[in-house]
Amino acid sequence: MSVSDLQLQLDTLREQLEQNPQLTVEERANLTDVMEQIQAQIELETVSQDPSISDGVNLAVERFEVDHPTIAGTLRNVLVTLGSMGI
User: Fold this and answer.
1) Which is nearest to 57 in space by CA: 4, 8, 3, 9?
2) Which InterPro entries match (predicted)?
3) Phi and psi for 47 in degrees, rounded to 5?
4) How many CB atoms sit inside 10 A of residue 17's CB?
């Protein structure tokens, strides 16, 4: 997996956020924060390990798993991509 794969998954997550009016303000804020962390990592294009990003995505998966499984699934894909990149 590459940075471009991660960007595609992030774009998918953005679309899901826009199309999901059922999210609470807090859920939107949490998801936006995680997405900003991922975008920052993409922009740096670094492959150095940063466990805080993976940890943040893991927490987001847990938060969204029950009420928003599609978003949680996309976040899991992000985790796989980060892992493949060594992040």
Assistant:
1) 9
2) DUF4404
3) -110, 15
4) 17
